[in-house]
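Example record for the data management plan.
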Amino acid sequence: MDPKGKVALVTGGAIGIGFSTCKELLKNGVKVVVVCDVDSQKGEAAVKEMRSQYGEGRVVFMKTDVSDAKSLEEAFKKTITTHNGLDIVVNNAGIINEKEWEKSIAVNLNGVIRGTLLALEHMGKDKGGKGGIVVNMSSVCGIHPIPCTPMYNATKHGVLAFTRTIGGEYHYDITGVRVTALCPGATYTAQFAGSIKNLYDDKWADRWIKNFESAGKQEPEDVGCAVIELMQRAESGTAWMIEGGSPIYEVKLEVKEIR
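Corresponding structural encoding:
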């Protein structure tokens, strides 16, 4: 897909990977990007910065809680009504909170599932839409579990399994919506910087720091660029990795689709 002239919605778009993704979409010519985030202050600041760079009418902020069905549904409906359609959805919102693990599941997994289903409902050709693409943000932790974050690992494994299934050939043939997953490695974001206080057991803090410091780290901008490349290259139902700012590559996982 060429992003030029398209309407995009990005959850968790106020900071980090989401913010960088929004900027890359704008650089690549999207008509408008809707920045969905639960933090109004950061969301408005992000939109102000992007508007100064890319134009007043191309960026919109909507306060959105992806763990709340009504909130996310309203964001989709308002986007489509206001901008006469929707072509690109990036389900990026995520947290690391091992102590409040139900919240992690609600945001990281349920939010992605709900965002994907809403995209299919509004964009699917079988529903009268014109197709499109959904990019779900998983993680290296969805492939290689890190010992210190079992709940986060579980949500990112879930995102990967859900994406590979809902994006499979059977579903794509019906909906015309490509659903893909991106699995970033360690990335310099506020989430990672503050996550040490949210580990399930404080004894894991030293191990968490060592794991992060030994990883090939990258910047949010690297991941934002990877999202664009994924849109242009990835087949539906596939998962892709980016580590250390290196080029993305497809994660070859065994697929045996039952029809």
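Summary line stored alongside the record: The chain has a mean pLDDT of 92.
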